[in-house]
Amino acid sequence: MPALLFFSAFAWAPLVAEPTRTVVKALESFRTEGPPGWSFTQHTLSESKDLVERYDAGQPEFRRWNLVAQNGRLAKPEEIISYREGFARQSRGGTAPRIARQIDTESMVLAAETPERSTYQAKLKAGDPSDRTALFLRAILVWHKPTGVIESFTVESTGAFSPTVGVRIEFMQTTMAYTLPVDDRPSLLSSVRTRLRGRAFWLRSLDAEVNVTYSDYRRSVPLRKP
User: Under 8 Å CB-to-CB from 67, ≥6 apart: which residues?
Assistant: First the structure.
C-alpha cells in the first residue's frame, strides 16, 4: 500500500468510529414515540381505515385520546362516546416498545454519509426468549450531524421468513421519521410508514400498508392533582 494511502486509511478510521459512539450513546435515551409532554393530532390511513385522533398529554391517562374524524368526515357524537367507552374498557396506557434497545450496537456499520447525515445499519437482538423475528430484521437509522438527533429510524426484514407455523412474510418495513429541533421545540415524531407483504396458510393475504402522520404539536403541562 502506498504510504499516502496507508496514512489516509489510518487517519480516517477514528473519524468513522467517533460518530458511531455518539449515535450509540444517543440510542440509550432514544424514544421511538418522541419526547413526553407533547399533544398532537394523529392521522392513520390504510386501505381499510381513515382515522383522525387527538392526543392531549395534559389530561389524565383515560382521557388523553379523543376521536376527531373517521372515513373522511367529522366523528358523530355517538361515535365519540363509543370511542371513549372503548378506552374505559381497554386503556392505551404503558410505554411504547423500546425497539432501539434491541439494536446490536456491536454490529453497527456506517452505510452512507453526506456532510450533514450519516446512515447506519445494525442487526437486532431478540426482545425476549420467544422472539423469533429479530434474527430476520435489521435497523437503519439516519443521524443528523448538525443537530445530533436521529432523523429517521427504520426496521426492515432482510429476507423472507416464517415467524410462526403457516405464516410467511416476504417483506416488512416500518420507518419512523422525525422533525429536526427548532428553537425550544425538540425533535418530534412526524410520520410512521409500515409495509407488509406475506401470506397466512398459503391462502389469506397479509399485504398491507399503513401511514400515520403527526401534526399540530403543542407542549402540554400535566394537570395538577387537587
Answer: 51, 52, 53, 75, 79, 80, 83, 84
